[in-house]
Specification:
The protein is α/β, with parallel strands linked by helices. The protein contains 7 helices and 19 strands. A hairpin with an 8-residue loop joins β6 and β7.
Length: about 325
Amino acid sequence: MKEQKSTLIESPRQIYDFKPDEKICYDVIIIGTGIVGWSAAMYSGRLGLKTLIIGELPGGTITQTHVVENYPGFISLSGPELAQKVETHARDYDINILMARVEKIERNKKDSKGNFKVFTKKQSFISKTIIYTTGSKWKKLNVSGEVEFENKGVSYCALCDAPLFKGKEVAIVGGSDSAVKESLLLSEYAKKVYVIYRGEKVHPEPINLKRMEEKVKQGKIEVINNTNIIEIKGDKFLEKVIIDKGFKGKKELALTGLFIAIGHIPLSELAKNVGVKLNKKGEVLVNRNSETNVAGFFAAGDVADTDFKQAITGVGEGVAAAYHAYEFVGHEKID
């Protein structure tokens, strides 16, 4: 293993006490320390690029997932374990690391050494390229008990957590195609799945509506329309939700799991301010090389406008971004 360039300090999670050199021009600055960012850092370090990765949350949102069973090479492990493994791999290369919040990105027009300038609260850095992996945050219901019971019955990822609720009664909030697809997945594990939606009827793609209707006939799924959850209750774990409209004569529903699928909010504001184009959802527009409309600015993972958002697909996009950043700074293609 190569000699580490950073100094670790003790904490519940590994946090870095390290100040990168502000005087040099980096080949790439990676913004975001989720597994997509660490994967990009691993590959850019492997390619010999002068690399700096900056982020606030070590491991990213995957660390909020109790069990991961859909990442190739690992039958089952926790989100924090997966994040740590990817991070440790990246740190085996000669990369610079800074745990800090990026406040601003500018195109560096005044300094010919690099194309971008990245600002934290106390420092600034120059780079030839940017790999933007800030991810997204889940839209929240913003009701009492939601924060308290997160990962204690409240989840935002059926693909991640559905197996934990085998034989249980659960609900999913949302009426989109994504919500209905999640209900179908949940129905393969749970005893009963309630789809709770504030509108008159759910609006998935026709094929998924047909599949859901079959599950309704089987008694595996039940749709509760024109209804909102107003409170989430329990002791140590989720036990029930309070709804604003009576269902079978009651305004509470006993559950062990509540999945919230009302959308995501991409963390794209810093990219937008540099002139990077976004779609209507606020996602960064990229091509298959993870390139944006701004030369030298790449994006990968949940912040990008890709249809299928999973840890493994984001990792691949991050690696692609690192390779094309390598090409951008003047290196020849690797066969």
